[in-house]
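Example noted here:
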Amino acid sequence: MFFDDAHFDERLNVGPRRDSSAGVGTTGLGAGVVHWLSVWVHTVPTMNLDDVHWQMTHYCGVSPRLAILLVEQGHLETAVRAAAERGEWYCAQEAVRALCARGEFERARSVIEPFVAIGLMAAKVLAAEVLIEWGRIDEGLKLVGPEDLDRVSGRGCRDFAELLVKAGRVDEAIDVLTPHVREGGIAALLVEMTDGQGRDDRVLDLLETLAAKGLQAAADQAWNWDLSSLQELRATVLERAGRVDEAIRVFGTHVTDRRVRNENTLTRYARLLARHDRLDALQDLATGRDTDGSS
């Protein structure tokens, strides 16, 4: 059994709680953690949104790592009880995932429902995932979907778009994010969530339109476009679509024409060249010679 004196103090911990009424230690536990948790879960009978937010932002109570290990080591019922009787968010999250993997959707929903009831958005998203995996797609999307998409920011649309992809509605997800694609992280999310979904041409059309506008803005000295990220994302989609030469040309032209010196960007370009054995272009990059890597 994993939970023994020799391993537990070093590898697991339960963090301090905002509500200290349980009277437990704040840094670590010795042997008997499962028995300890089985008693501990009875000490706080109510749940509120502030305490759950405190857990999530300060990694308090049962830590994410401990919650994962409880479930992995066969103590799913302890995690379920900690979620139900003590409001342990990370226990709820891991218990729900484990129950869904077993096909126990009804029970998974019952575990997450108290967190939904107090208005926790992360719980609504997880509950929607349960419903979608259960086959109750419209019900799941309705749980998270904004009432008026036109009035919601890109950040507010992210969870809904990702759920649409999980529900197999990829084109709808793209439609949801397109009006917000210039907002921070949205273009990258669009590229990530469409990977393997057969929508590369559509995503490329969108990115190429944005890149053209970004280049014009740069020419006009209007530096409010993250042109570097757009070109990198274009290269990512081109590469995964099998259009390697175009990917290298787009990325390489950007690096040379804009005289990019950002180490992270250059590293990603070097890795692209290395993945496709463009050794001459890689050597030119290393020695500072201008090349778009296309030869």
Notes: The first helix runs from residue 5 to 11. DSSP finds 17 helices and two strands in the chain.
